[in-house]
Write a structure and sequence with these properties.
By secondary structure, this protein is α+β, with helices and mostly antiparallel strands. The protein has a domain at 3-97: HUPs (Rossmann fold). The chain has helices spanning 19-38, 54-62, 67-84, 99-114, 197-205, 213-225; strands at residues 3-6, 42-49, 91-94, 118-128, 133-134, 140-143, 152-153, 170-174, 182-191, 230-231. Strands 5-4-9-10 form a 4-stranded antiparallel sheet. Helix 2 packs across helix 3 (67-84) and helix 5 runs antiparallel to helix 6 (213-225).
């Protein structure tokens, strides 16, 4: 008998789920959970809704309501759909309502910081003066500098497929209101991935024959280019607060 902890990708609750959510995430995890129960393994299948972040805040702004009301509304729909399809979660929770989620997130953050893998950096991000808030790259559109498509997103142009940064766009604007935006300096905490390159390379070497060749090729390609620091904080009110008082 073995112990199995199983989960699946947590869906955002800023919209109604579609069949792709089930087929690509919940159903495969459910099949694996049922298989392990049949084998007699001790199995815990957990999931939930990802309720924090920019998509939820912006959906609340669009509907002139609060993030909490938006997540309450969509969580109920998600839960009813997964129950109707018989997805056999032992626990299907919510990130905004779970005390454990806040505590575990905080402890992981502090441990990584104490181990020296988190740094603070200044960066320029899209900012809407009328809204008085920073925007995620997916909520910025403008003209693609490569193909001229006028509604390219701040992360990628859907017309030519080129990966973009919001600052690459010509005439960048708010994707929801169409209003022009500016770029404003802010400070964020970053995961310093460069310090983990050697350990990741050694770990990846042990996965040959386990991971697919495509997966390994992509991962080794990133390592060859050199891993860049990754921002892990956001200019948001709706989320798990950074425990600044315990950092220094």
């Amino acid at each position: 008998m073995e112990i199995r902890l199983i989960t699946s990708a947590l869906p955002y609750v800023n919209n109604v789920p579609h069949i792709g959510h089930l087929v690509g995430s919940h159903l495969p995890a459910d099949i694996f959970a049922r298989y392990n129960r049949i084998k007699g393994n001790i199995t815990l299948f957990i999931g939930g809704t990802d309720e924090h972040g920019t998509p939820t805040e912006l959906e609340a702004i669009k509907n002139n309501t609060t993030p909490e009301k938006i997540t309450d509304f969509y969580y109920k729909i998600h839960k009813e759909i997964y129950d109707w399809f018989g997805i056999s979660y032992d626990n299907f929770s919510r990130t905004s309502k779970s005390k454990i989620h806040y505590e575990v997130t905080r402890e992981i953050f502090l441990q990584i910081f104490r181990n020296g893998y988190i740094i603070e950096k200044e960066q320029e991000l899209p900012y809407d003066p009328k809204w008085g808030r920073f925007l995620a790259d997916r909520f910025v559109i403008g003209k693609c500098p490569y193909c001229g498509y006028d509604k390219a997103r701040g992360d990628q142009c859907e017309m030519c497929g080129r990966l973009l940064d919001p600052k690459d766009l010509i005439d960048p604007r708010n994707a929801i209101t169409g209003e022009s935006i500016i770029f404003k300096k802010t400070r964020h905490m970053f995961l310093d991935l460069s310090k983990l390159e050697n350990d990741l390379k050694n770990w990846l070497d042990t996965k040959k024959g386990i991971f697919s060749d495509v997966t390994l090729s992509i991962a080794y390609g990133w390592l060859k280019e050199g891993l860049k620091a990754r921002s892990i904080t956001r200019d948001l009110k709706w989320g798990v607060p950074v425990p600044y008082k315990e950092l220094w």
